[in-house]
Structures are given as C-alpha cells and as structure tokens.
Amino acid sequence: MTLIASRTTIAVVTNPASDNGRGRSVGDEALRYLRGHGSRLGFGVIDLTGESREDSMANVRRDLADIDTLVVVGGDGMVSLGVNAVADCDIPLGIIACGSGNDFARGLDLPVGRIHASAESILAAVAGGSTINLDLGHVTSADDGGERINTFFAGMLNCSIDAAINDRANHSRLPFGTLRYLEAGIWEASHVQDYGFHVSMRTDEPGVVDFDLTTPLIAIANARYIGSGIEASPDSDLTDGQLEMIWAKWHPSAPEALRILAKAYRGDHIGEPLIGYRRIRSITLGESPHGSRSPVLMADGERIGRLPVRVEAHRRALKLLVPPRIAQRWAERHSRRP
C-alpha cells in the first residue's frame, strides 16, 4: 500500500450524456457526496467533466500534474477514460460504478450502482492510502507503429460478434444494462457471421504461433466480465502479466450459440468443445482473406478502430483505489503465490 498525503486534490469526471441524459443526475449526486464528505477530511474535489469524452480527457491531461487522485463516475466506458488518463503514472484511479455494464468493477467486488457506498469507499481508500496495482491490456495499430491506435483497456478487447453485441447494446434504448446486452446478444447470436483473422501470438512457450482463423468469436481478455455480467474469461488474473484469448472453433447453430451465451453468464462455457481458451503474452491480429471483415474493434465498450492490431499485457500499469478490505484480501491472496 502507498500512503497518500492528507491534503489531496481529487479530480472527478462524470458522464452527463450517458443513459439518455440520466448520467447527469448520477454525476451530480456523486460530486455532492465527495465534496461534502471529502471536505471534512481536508480533501479538495474538482470537476473536470468536459462537453464530450475528448474534452474530459483533455481536461484531465492538462491538470494531471496538479491532482492527486482521479475518480470516474459511470460504466466501463468511463473506466476506459480513467485508465487511459492515468496508466503508467502514480496517480490512483477511483471508480464510482453507475453505468450500464460495470464489468470491471464487478470483477473486483467494488460497489455497483450504489453512489454513496462507492464514494464513501473511495474517500476511505484515499484517507488510508488503500491501493492495488493491476495489469492492463495495451492495443496498438500494427500497420503504423501505433500511430492509428494506441490505447489501454482494463477489461476486454472485442473483435467479432462480441464487438457487434457491445456496439448494438450501446445504441439500445432499453432502460437497463443487462437487458440491453441480452437483447443485443440474442439478435447477434441469431445473425452470426464468420470473420477472417490472421493470428500471431506468443505464450509462455518459446516461439510464435501463427495461424488463420475463421470464426464468429474472438476476444482478448484482461479481466473476467463483459456485457453486464457475462463471465467470459473466468480464469483471468489482473496481476499475472498475461491475457486470455477466447474464440469459437466453428460456426455454431443459433440454438448452440444461445446455449453457450446462457452458460457464459456463469463462466461455464469454458471447456465446451465449441470454445477455445488460451493464455497469451501478446498477440497480433490481422485480416485473413477468408471470412467476413471484422467489425470495428471495441475496448472496454469504446470504439478504437480496425485491424491490424498488436495486443500485449502491460504489467502493473494501473494503481486502483479500493476499500481497505479488498486491499487486504488482495495482499493475502498474492502473498501466498510462489
């Protein structure tokens, strides 16, 4: 754990436009709580929310040298903003998980959908210096040395039907995240396409594994959950310096796809003959002449661009504020490692 100075500036970024405008009231409530209770602890709270995601990111980067902590309010898209603002620096990130997905927070047992509980946990973490260091995924465009794409992700990189589901859910008008992803998943599972990929990956074994893959599903996981509670990668560990590649080995029938989707909510799809699952250190994904062109890639629910990309695990790139009980559990868990 790292102790944080008692005089601390907490920067907050909210997402007023989310959830058809309901994100504004969520953000306002979070700010009121942090300011009211934070002032009693000697913390200053500033709002760096801009007119757009790009404005908010620019505001954070402009003031990065003058803040001690960044807090994002919203779902996994806001986690993505926070991660890319503070990755590889000593500024901790706090998450008030009140979005449609909240998958990264769910995997860490952080409060979900509870503004006051989340804010209280963050203030306690700041006061006690309660942080953990986590790996991130790092995606760069492979055709231009990272000029086109250069981004971190906390949860998952979606490259196929999973990206299509994510994009469809993002545009849904249904009121709840789980319903949005369920509706999108059912629609896409009933209209499955086979996408063509060239895969070049490194594992713990020597050498590079190269092959072409025609599949409706390929995803690269850093964390366990996606799609508002689908446990797509149940064995993901945020501190092992590895990612997980999940893919479908053949084109499933619609009933088979729906059955696997249902099992994935419990993480029970791993081990099914249809599903491939492999730990990797890095991977380069390009297009293959076989199959359809893949959708726009989605990292933590945000569009980032198209293939080809290189993806690798980035060790201990994120310092995350967590309640002391989680930090203690984390320390005990990792002290038992050989």
From TrEMBL:
Family: Belongs to the diacylglycerol/lipid kinase family.
GO terms, molecular function: ATP binding; kinase activity
Pfam families, sorted: DAGK_cat, YegS_C
Stretches of the chain forming a coiled coil according to its record: none
Superkingdom, natural source: Bacteria
Naturally occurring in which organism (per UniProt): Bifidobacterium simiarum
Protein name: DAGKc domain-containing protein
Matches recorded under InterPro entries: ATP-NAD_kinase_N (IPR017438), Diacylglycerol_kinase_cat_dom (IPR001206), Lipid_Phosphate_FormReg (IPR050187), NAD/diacylglycerol_kinase_sf (IPR016064), YegS/DAGK_C (IPR045540)
One annotated GO biological process: phospholipid biosynthetic process
Cofactor section: Mg(2+)
Hydrolase among keywords: no
